[in-house]
Predict the structure.
Amino acid sequence: MAQAATQALGEAGLARAQIDGVLCGYATTLPHLMLATLFCERFALEPAYAHAMQMGGATGAGMLMLARELVRSGRCRNVLVVAGENRLSGQQRDNAIATLAQVGDPDFELPNGTMIPAYYALLASRYLHESGLDEADLAAFAVAMRANASRHPGAHLRTPITLDEVLSSKPIASPLKLLDCCPISDGAVAMVVSADAPAGARIAILGAGQAHRHQHLTAIADTRNFGARDATARAFAEAGISRDAIDYLAIYDSFTITLAILLEETGFAPFGGSARLLREGVFAPNGPQPLNTHGGLLSFGHSGVGGGMAHLAETWRQLAQRAGERQVSPRHTAFVHADGGVLSSHVSLILSREA
């Protein structure tokens, strides 16, 4: 986290003394009761406002949204948003299982031995049945994300994979296989939301929206609206633009089914049509709406809150034209969507490069 924060402050041209707000993501491998304060102590910060947040995979986007509100209100001028943990090397398997089990309902789900892959597998079975998508359609997203990650030096998984390799990989929870699932990774991301954006890369948050319709799988009432639709509508209403203005996409992808569902529910693909648009090149790096050019959680890696924030960091780099060999043609306006839990907490953001 300190390494990521140092890089962020360097790119923003800010000294530590100028940071007057700190938002810190939770870390399952460091369950400290005052993680934001602990980080400030270790990183030599003395902000006027600081706390940690817990929204599952939506935490990073939620923190960025809150940071904007703190700056807008005048409470802070420079808010450091940071998260990271060593989920791969810093915990044993049993500890990881015990922590992630909190996502399940203690009365109706956990007694059946379910875990997060099983919840998403049940969602996948239902969604494939309703939408007409199939397992090969989901596998195509895994192949695409790995191709993107192969161009990122910091990605966890960089070796290209084929459709057949995805379909023949180890079954985890039918219909999801090993390569339909994100890896567990080590990593951290930090960003700065400032009232005084530096010259050269002024990226504004035009719109933001949230939605929270359920926590547990057994409480889902509508498989056509998990909450992403509502969060997206709120973000676009605030931004005052249409989807036609979006030329970059960063969509949460803990599993291949997550990516397919969220692309369709946010309106960037018709119901059952996400894989078709993928194969047509719409979401390719050279397409009209490049998607997760860093490789997403599926291949760049999932380091908890930092894994979700990597979507935001890559979006900033693409809009600022600082993505190196991954840089796509100039992009101006991006849509970011993150979810936490079992498609439970949703945050949508619209970012735009200012002239």
Summary: The first strand starts at residue 21 and ends at 25. The chain has a mean pLDDT of 96. The radius of gyration is 19 Å.
